[in-house]
Design goal:
This protein has 405 residues and is an alpha+beta fold. The chain has 13 helices and 20 strands. It has a domain of 222 residues: FAD/NAD(P)-binding domain (3-Layer(bba) Sandwich). The mean pLDDT is 96. The structure holds flavin-adenine dinucleotide.
């Protein structure tokens, strides 16, 4: 198949890179284009969920990442007002349902890098950066994209399909006039990373959520660039202050003093402020243009589901494209991709990530107490706990999506 026109992929983030790798490993030529000169090393998603690790085994990504990540079976939920640990959820209980009964804490750019290291050795894989996809057209036989090369010149590339993995502002999606309904949260989220050890200081686990009516926070441990261990703290910025004020040392140290007063001042090794959206594309496919990852759906990061569900899109889609290109399936499979992935994005990732945020910031004291009681009752009952874990890990979503015909 190496002489065939390549499948085109806009975007070489986690979803584009992994989808490209999976296709290339099956002998399908792929050509990726990304606007950025290199893989960005900023702090974004930090968690690989159990089914993602399982589904990426064959590609070699899981074996490359397991020794480098932090295995985190437990995640903790705290109430900041009372200071108590409400309960702890344990992915270890999923040991009969998945070979990896834990979340793997590892920075997003290492996941992308691991996929790239495997892919770059394949003749069927090409990535071009920094190349901007600036226009997308399609006809009955294929897709034609226009890209802007680093010297400013424009090139055209053709392929049988374009997979739009170009993030929330996807040109692939916009070029096909596919709606992206949903909403944007009023507050922005700020991720601040420090080497301070919250586990040693106060018994935090490697993944933690701390509830509070307005100053809630989430804490995750990731390996760091030199395996020194870095804690990423996520705070909402509930103000209309300008970005420069919110990312200032003063603002960040004030949040720490209020939410996590174990050290002052904290050494800050990274900061990242961003707007958060909840949106799902009206269709994941228009003809020969197919959307995956953030191009198709975006959500808040609480629960670590966005990048994982995007990777699941890519795995699902790559399997179908291989069948189509080998003549073992028809383009109806692309409609099946939409039927399997789009409703599930709404049912699981949107519903759950919105709910996770509401629980963290519930303002009504009685409702808060009820929620905490429910959480404790969930972890006290093995079946309820397992149901919760299947949803939180996205196992239930993957299983339900795959059962749709
Ligand atoms: C600032 C920030 C912080 C985040 N923090 C968290 C977090 O803490 N936890 C969490 O779970 N999730 C987080 N997320 C979400 C998570 O990073 C995404 O779900 C994940 O990156 C989706 O992967 P993707 O490959 O679909 O898209 P992206 O990672 O967005 O990759 C898209 C790629 O497409 C490229 N691209 C875009 N337009 C074009 C174009 N026209 N031509 C060529 N290339 C193009 C971009 O350069 C990029 O490399 C965060 C996202 C952002 C933006």
């Amino acid at each position: 198949m190496a002489n065939e026109q390549p499948i085109l992929i806009s975007g070489a983030g986690p979803v584009g890179m992994i989808t490209g790798l999976l296709l290339a490993q099956q002998g399908i030529p792929v050509k990726l284009f990304d606007s950025l000169a290199e893989i960005p090393a900023d702090h974004r998603a930090a968690t690989l969920q159990p089914p993602t690790l399982h589904m990426l085994e064959e590609s070699g990504i899981t074996a490359s990442l397991l020794p480098r990540g932090i295995k985190s079976p437990l995640f903790q939920f705290r109430d900041r007002l009372s200071g108590e640990v409400v309960t702890e959820f344990d992915f270890g209980l999923l040991r009969d349902e998945t070979p990896h009964p834990f979340a793997l804490q590892i920075e997003q750019h290492k996941t992308v890098g691991a996929a790239y290291e495997i892919a770059k050795k394949l003749d069927t894989f090409e990535v071009h950066r920094p190349y901007d996809v600036i226009a997308v057209g399609q006809d009955a036989d294929g897709v034609e994209i226009t890209v802007r090369a680093p010297d400013g010149s424009e090139e055209k590339h053709r392929g049988p399909y374009l997979i739009g993995c170009d993030g929330g502002r996807s040109i692939a999606r916009k070029s096909q006039n596919i709606d992206f309904p949903g909403f944007t949260w009023e507050e922005r989220f700020i991720i601040v990373a420090t080497r301070f050890d919250f586990a040693a200081a106060d018994g935090f686990r490697f993944r933690n959520y701390v509830a509070h009516p307005d100053q809630w926070c989430a804490l995750m441990k990731v390996p760091g660039e030199e395996d020194e261990g870095v804690w990423r703290c996520l705070f909402p910025a509930m103000t209309d202050e300008p970005d420069e004020a919110v990312i200032s040392d003063e603002w960040i140290q004030a949040r720490y003093l209020e939410c996590l007063p174990y050290e002052a001042p904290y050494e800050i090794v990274h900061r990242n402020l961003y707007s958060v959206h909840q949106r799902v594309a009206a269709s994941f496919r228009k003809g020969r243009v197919i959307l995956a990852g953030d191009a198709a759906h975006v959500n808040n990061p609480i629960g670590g589901m966005g990048m994982n569900s995007g990777i699941h899109d890519g795995i699902n889609l790559a399997e179908k494209l291989v069948l189509i290109l080998r003549g073992d399936g028809t383009e109806d499979l692309l409609d099946l991709y939409d039927r399997q992935r789009r409703p599930m994005a709404n049912k699981y990732v949107q519903a759950q990530s919105i709910r996770n945020k509401e629980v963290l910031q519930e303002p009504d004291p009685q409702a808060r107490q009820r929620q905490f009681d429910e959480m404790r009752a969930t972890t006290a009952d093995k079946e309820k706990h397992l149901t919760y874990l299947r949803n939180a890990s996205l196992l239930a979503m993957v299983n339900e999506a795959n059962s749709i015909t």
